[in-house]
Design brief:
Order of helices and strands: EEHEHEEEEE
Number of helices: 2
CATH architecture: 3-Layer(bab) Sandwich
Shape: globular
Structural class: alpha+beta
Helix content: 10-25%
Number of strands: 8
Length: about 140
């Protein structure tokens, strides 16, 4: 099973992520978002940064989860190459980003994401596979 795919339409940039659980889909969605920003293969998992979000439903929770990760990237200068998600309920997500301080030379920064959007947002289960789709404001 693939972890995620990049959606590249004329005016939109997004991802569709997959997982056998909500947690795996959230982790793969975060990894897909990071792949739009930098070369995730160049990031060493030296440290874990806690990531948590709350919302009133799963789709809003996904947007808030990704927004929290973007905050760590933009405001605190982190590069993430993988994610571990401990739990995703209807209203809360909690886990960790694995990475290191951002080094623009080492991590080959290739893009900028301003925010995840609600445009074409979806998150649900299909035949035992969770699928998340997010379009980003770039």
């Amino acid at each position: 099973m693939k972890r995620f795919e990049v959606l590249d339409h004329t005016a939109d940039v997004g991802i569709r992520a997959y997982g056998r659980s909500r947690e795996e889909a959230f982790a793969n969605c975060a990894l897909g978002m990071m792949s739009l920003i930098l070369d995730v293969e160049s990031v060493e998992p030296r440290e874990r940064r806690h990531v948590a979000a709350e919302a009133s439903g799963l789709e809003e929770l996904l947007v808030r989860w990704l927004s929290e990760i973007l905050f760590l990237v933009e405001a605190e200068g982190w590069a993430f190459g993988d994610f571990e998600v401990r739990e995703v309920t209807e209203r809360q997500a909690e886990g960790w980003g694995l990475g290191e301080p951002l080094d623009t030379g080492k991590h080959k920064v290739s893009g900028e994401i301003k925010a995840p959007t609600y445009h074409m947002l979806s998150f649900g289960e299909d035949n035992g596979i969770w699928i998340a789709q997010v379009i980003f404001d770039v």
